[in-house]
Amino acid sequence: MGLLTSVAAQAASAADCPGHPDAIGTSRTIVVDPRAHLIIGTMQYAKTLPLEDHEVVLTFDDGPLPKYSNQILDILAAHCAKATFFLVGSQANGNPEGVRKVRDAGHTVATHTQNHPTGMDRLPLDRSRQEIEQGIASVTAALADGTAPAPFLRIPGLRVNDGIEEFAASKGLQIWSADFPADDWRNVSANRVYDLAIQRLEAKGKGILLLHDIQPRTVAALPRILHELKVRGYRIVHVVPATPDRPATPTEPQQWLLHPPSEMVAVSRWPKVPKFASSGPAVLAVPVLSDLDWHTTDLGVRTSRRGRGVPLPPVAPWPRQTTLPPAGTLAALPVPAASLFEIPESARVTLLALSAHRAASTAQARSTEVSSTKLAGKSRRHGRAAVAQPPASAGQAAQAPQSANGTTPKPAAQAKRNGRSVRVAGLKKR
Ligand SMILES: [Zn+2]
Questions:
Q1: Alpha helices in 315-389 (DSSP H)
Q2: Residues with CB under 5 A from ligand 1 (ion)
Q3: HSE on the CB side for 182, CA within 13 Å?
Q4: What digits encode the pLDDT tens for the residues 164-208?
Q5: How far, in Å, is the centroid of ligand 1 from the Cα of 342?
Q6: What is the spatial distance between Cα 87 and Cα 153, in angstroms, rounded to a whole number?
Q7: Catalytic residue set
Q8: 66-79 vs 216-231: helix crossing angle, rounded to 10
């Protein structure tokens, strides 16, 4: 059914491109609410646009620069392919007509700071804010129709930091990283740009392609890229921001992951080790030594065991008794804080996918529940010495199943949401 729909969409888009039977067209438009997904693009983040397999979003940075941007617009027009342009404020000031051309061609106009500073992650935050706001103001002025650019922002060289991300979020701006570049800002041939675009797309199967509309090699490579995308069955998706009149395209959280969890792929992802903290004055009793029974355990197996055919001594040569501090020397241990057993809401996203996944977690939750009940029983038994705190153990037992439910596989990259930015090695300006 999905295949039929996409084939129909593709046929429709080609038919909608009069005079260009070989055009790839634009298969669909998705409406995105920036505030719902503030950072996207798997070059740096866990999430990306909610694309289906073989869907591509074209993005062009650094324009408008008439000499090349106009050619890029012509090529896209010949393919009826819609893209997102991240325009630089100073370029917009110098060529406001170019900004309007992008808009009038039906592409999404977004921003890329005022002066395209390199190493923006090292600028004082005030400078970064100014760059972002001025960039938006310049493009708004160039549009000259009272409208603002889309609240989509790409940081030059993708050099973001936490402060920039927080500022963008406070302004309702969605930071676009990318899923793959084609290195068209480097001194490489157009053929190389073409090869990289296709190979990197094939490696991920879908995603946001990062290109530059101010580079002659991009102009040279783009027709071949679009042609090859069509030959290989890829489809172009246009992205526009949500507005009060245009609600966001409904999506499920896992659609924002490049590779949503599948029952065909075995995963083993665990939450990060929590920061240990005690809950305060409450304590658990130290187990009494005699409860451990270690010195009376009959290790009968050992007598008959042979190491490489040589009988082992019937009695182990190491001392059977050790000197331990008398029971009661240590009166109590701190009770772990209940928050240790809580898994953040964001970590649950990947579990929403498939029933098999869910069934597995339920089974896991059950088994953990059993073991934690046992544990709780044990600590209650041990609780007869010193400062016994049955309520604390009971509380812990009640917490444990909840944490087991929440033991959601957490993609390593998803740690980003609250963690540090992932730097993209070697990705310089343009
Ligand atoms: Zn740039």
A1: 355-382
A2: 61-62, 156
A3: 33
A4: 999 999 999 999 999 999 999 999 999 999 999 999 999 999 999
A5: 41
A6: 9
A7: 61, 212
A8: 10
